[in-house]
Design brief:
Helices cover about 45% and strands about 15% of the residues. It has about 350 residues and is of the alpha/beta class. Helix 8 packs parallel to helix 9 and helix 10 packs parallel to helix 11. The protein is elongated.
C-alpha cells in the first residue's frame, strides 16, 4: 500500500497541515526548522514520494473555485450560486459547478476531482444527512485538500471541521409557528422532507416544538416525509387529500418553498381553494415565488449574500478553529396565510 502524507504526519508526530507545508511548501505559511527536519526524516524512513499535484497546489493554484451543490435546478441553490459567481468574479476567479443530486458519494467524487484539478477553493452548499460515516469521509477528504493548500467553506451544518455558514433553521421555524398561531391557525400539517436530512429535521423540530408549547401540537400522522422537491410536496399533499386529512387542516407548512409550490398544485388538483380551504407556508423565499398566486408566506434567507459570504470565507486564510457564521431567517407573511376570524 502506498505511503500517504497522513502516514508521514503520524510518524513525525505533527499535524497533516504541518507535514504538507514541510514537504510541499506553502505560498503564505512557513514551518519551524526543527519540525521540517522531523517531517523530512519521517518521509525518508517511510520512503514517501511527494505528490506533484500537491506541491503545485501549495505553491501555485489555478484560478478556479469548485462549487458543489445538491440540486442546481432548485432555485435555492441557483440563487446561492449566483452570489458565489459574483464574488468569484470580483476576485478574478472562475467557478466550476457540480450538482450531486443529493448523493453523498458524488460529493466525495467531486471533491477528489477538484483537488486533482488544483482548484483554488471548494465550496459545498446543502444540508448534511444523518450519516456519520459519509460525513466523516467527507471531512477527511476536505482536511486532506486543505492540507495541500486549498480553501474550503460550507453552507449547512457545522459538521465537517471547516468554515461554515449555518442557517438558524429551528429558531426561524419557531418564529413562523408563533406568527401563524397569532393569526389564528391551530390545526397544521407538515411536509417534512427526507427523514435523514438534517436541515429538514431542524425545520420540522423548531415548528412542531413551538406549536406544542402553544397548545396546538401537530399530530404525528400529519407529518409527511418525502423528497425535498416539488414532486415531494405534491405527492405529500395528495396523500393528505386522499385520506381526507386536509378537510380538518387549516395550514400546511412545507420545509422549503419548492415543496410548497408542489403542495399548492396538489391542493388545487384536489378541488381545494387557497387560502379559502387551506393555507400554505414555506421556507427560503426563492425568486420564483414572485409568480405564485396567492403569494406564499415563507421565511426569507439572504441567499445571494450567503453565496458571497461563503466565497469570501473559502478564499480567506484558514484559522486554527473553523469559523461558524449563523444566518437568521425572516418571516414574511403573505396572502397564502390570511388572518383567521
Amino acid at each position: 500500500m502506498a505511503v500517504t502524507l497522513s502516514d508521514v504526519a503520524r510518524e513525525a508526530g505533527v499535524s497533516l497541515a504541518t507535514a504538507s507545508r514541510a514537504i510541499n511548501g506553502s505560498a503564505d505559511r512557513t514551518v519551524r526548522t526543527d519540525l521540517r527536519e522531523r517531517v523530512l526524516a519521517a518521509a525518508e524512513r517511510l520512503r514517501y514520494s511527494p505528490d506533484a499535484n500537491a506541491q503545485a497546489m501549495a505553491r501555485g493554484r489555478t484560478i478556479a473555485i469548485g462549487l458543489i451543490v445538491h440540486e442546481i435546478a432548485d432555485a435555492y441553490f441557483s440563487t446561492i450560486a449566483s452570489g458565489v459567481t459574483s464574488a468569484a468574479e470580483r476576485a478574478g476567479l472562475v467557478v466550476t459547478l457540480a450538482s450531486t443530486d443529493r448523493d453523498t458519494a458524488r460529493e466525495l467524487t467531486f471533491v477528489d476531482l477538484m483537488q486533482r484539478q488544483r482548484a483554488r477553493a471548494i465550496i459545498l452548499v446543502g444540508g448534511r444527512f444523518d450519516d456519520d460515516t459519509s460525513n466523516d469521509r467527507l471531512a477527511a477528504a476536505l482536511a486532506e485538500y486543505r492540507s495541500r493548500g486549498g480553501g474550503v467553506a460550507v453552507i449547512g451544518q457545522p459538521l465537517l471541521g471547516v468554515d461554515t455558514v449555518t442557517i438558524q433553521n429551528r429558531a426561524s421555524t419557531r418564529d413562523l409557528a408563533h406568527q401563524l398561531h397569532g393569526l389564528g391557525y391551530r390545526r397544521f400539517a407538515v411536509l417534512a422532507g427526507p427523514e435523514n436530512h438534517l436541515t429538514a429535521r431542524e425545520r420540522v423540530e423548531g415548528f412542531r416544538d413551538a406549536l406544542a408549547e402553544l397548545g396546538a401540537p401537530v399530530p404525528r400522522d400529519l407529518v409527511i416525509h418525502g423528497p425535498f422537491t416539488r414532486d415531494g410536496g405534491y405527492d405529500g399533499t395528495a396523500e393528505l387529500a386522499s385520506r381526507g386529512a386536509l378537510e380538518d387542516v387549516e395550514l400546511v407548512f412545507a420545509v422549503n418553498d419548492v415543496m410548497a409550490v408542489g403542495a399548492m398544485a396538489a391542493a388545487r388538483a384536489a378541488g381545494l381553494s387557497i387560502p379559502g380551504d387551506v393555507a400554505f407556508a414555506g421556507f427560503d423565499d426563492i425568486l420564483t415565488l414572485r409568480d405564485i398566486t396567492p403569494s406564499l408566506t415563507t421565511i426569507r434567507l439572504p441567499l445571494t449574500d450567503m453565496g458571497a459570504m461563503v466565497t469570501e470565507m473559502a478564499l480567506s486564510p484558514a484559522k486554527d478553529e473553523p469559523r461558524i457564521v449563523p444566518v437568521d431567517g425572516e418571516v414574511i407573511l403573505r396572502d397564502s396565510t390570511p388572518r383567521l376570524r
